[in-house]
C-alpha cells in the first residue's frame, strides 16, 4: 500500500480505502518478484464528502511526482499544508481530473442546499450559492471551477478535524444503543405481572452470568496476548517468541509500521473468547466496541508520537515496559456498564420528549385529515346541488319548448331568439358539467 493511504488514512484518521489496485513497495530493489495485487475493501468514513475525498486521493495517487513526495513527507508536512504546494507540479491530466471532481462536488452541494431550502419552505428570490457554500469547509467556495492547492489543504484539514472525534462518536453510539436496549428491557418487564416478571428477571440474570463465564482475556499488547497470537495464529513455538520477528510477520503490507487495521487483526483470538458471531445471544455491536477499546489501549501505550501508526522502534520500546510482562487481565464490557443510571434517566427523558413530539405531530395530522374529510363532504354536497339545479333548468327549458309560439298582429307565429328558446340539447351542451371550483363552501 502506498504512503498516500498511510498518511491520509491513518495519520489523518482517514479510515478509508480508495479501492484501487496497489503493489507493495519493493525494498530490495528489483530482485523480488512483485506480489499478487490485492484489492482492499472499500470503507466509508461516514463523512458527507466521503466519495469526493476518496476520488481525490485516487487521482493524486496516479501522479508519480506527488506520490514520491508523499513517501518522504511526515505528518506535519501534510497537516500544515506544505504537501499541498506540490499540487502545482502534478501532471496536466491529473489537474484536469481534479477540476472535474471539484465541479461535480460543487454541483452536488448546490443540490443539497436547494433540497434543504425546499424542505424548510424558505422563500428566497435568488439563492446566493457562493455565500451558502461557505459553510462547507472541505473546499474553497470562492473558486468553484478549478482544484487548487488550497482545496487540497482544506480537504485534509476538514477530514482531520471531522475524523479526530470519530472514535468518540462510535463510543457514544454504542452507549446510546446499550441504553435503548436497557430501556426496552425495563419497559417489557413493566408489562408483565409479578410472577412472570420475577421469572424473566431470573432468566436474564442467568444469561448475563453465562456470558461472563469465559476464558481469561489477556490485555491487548501484553506479552501473554502476543505470545498467544504467535503460537495459535502464526503456528510458532511460544518459547521462541521474538518481538522483532512478530512485528515483521504482522506488518502485512510491509510498509514498516503497524496501522490500526493490522493492530485490530491481532485481537481476534481474544475477542473469540468472549463473543461468538454465530451465537444469537452475542451482540456484534459489543464485539466491535471491545475491538475499538483494545486498539485504543494499545495506541495509548505504544504510539508515543500519536500519529496513529506503530513503528518498529515504538513496538520494541513497549516490550521493555513493566506492563508488558505483568499486565492485568483485560476487563471486558460485561464487567463494566457503558453508562451510568443518571445517563440512562436522561436518555429515557429524551425518548419521552421525542414520543410526545411525535404524538403531537400525529394528532395535528389527524385533525388535518378530518378537516379534509369535512371539506370533501361539503364539496360533494355542493356538486350534487349544482347537478340538481342543472337538471331542473333543463326540464323547464324542455317544457317551454313544447308551447305554441304567440301570434303576431298579422296572424303570423313569432319566434323568440333569446337564449331561453334554444333547443334543450343545445342548452345542455352550453352548461358546464361541473360547478365552479371557487364557489364558497357551505358551512
TrEMBL record:
It is a peripheral membrane protein. Pfam families: EF-hand_7, NUCB1_N. Residues 192-209, 413-423 have a biased composition (Basic and acidic residues). Residues 238-273 form the EF-hand domain. Keywords: Calcium, Coiled coil, Cytoplasm, DNA-binding, Golgi apparatus, Guanine-nucleotide releasing factor, Membrane, Metal-binding, Phosphoprotein, Repeat, Secreted, Signal. SUPFAM superfamilies: EF-hand. GO terms for molecular function: calcium ion binding; DNA binding; guanyl-nucleotide exchange factor activity. One of its GO terms (cellular component) is endoplasmic reticulum-Golgi intermediate compartment. Residues 433-443 have a biased composition (Pro residues). InterPro entries: EF-hand-dom_pair (IPR011992), EF_Hand_1_Ca_BS (IPR018247), EF_hand_dom (IPR002048), NUCB1_N (IPR057576), Nucleobindin (IPR040250). Residues 1-22 form the signal peptide. It is found in: Cytoplasm; Golgi apparatus, cis-Golgi network membrane; Secreted. Its main location: cytoplasm. Coiled coil: none annotated. Residues 192-219, 383-443 are annotated as: Disordered. Major calcium-binding protein of the Golgi which may have a role in calcium homeostasis. Acts as a non-receptor guanine nucleotide exchange factor which binds to and activates alpha subunits of guanine nucleotide-binding proteins (G proteins). Belongs to the nucleobindin family. Interacts (via GBA motif) with guanine nucleotide-binding protein G(i) alpha subunits GNAI1, GNAI2 and GNAI3 with higher affinity for GNAI1 and GNAI3 than for GNAI2. Preferentially interacts with inactive rather than active GNAI3. Interaction with GNAI3 is inhibited when NUCB1 binds calcium, probably due to a conformational change which renders the GBA motif inaccessible. This is Nucleobindin-1. It comes from Oryzias melastigma (Marine medaka). The lineage of its organism: Eukaryota, Metazoa, Chordata, Craniata, Vertebrata.
